[in-house]
Amino acid sequence: MARTVLVTGAASGIGAAIAKAFEKVGDRVLRVDRTPLKGADTRVANLEEPSEVEQVAAWAVEQGGVDVLVNNAGFQHVAPIEDFPLELWQRMLGVMLTAPFLLTKALLPRMKEQGWGRIINIGSIHSQVASPYKAGYVSAKHGLFGLTKVTALEGGPFGVTANLICPAYVRTPLVEGQVADQAKNLGIPEDEVIEKVMLEPAAIKRLIEPEEVARLALFLASDAAGAITGACLPMDLGWMAR
Question: Active-site residue among 75, 137, 145, 239?
Answer without folding.
Answer: 137
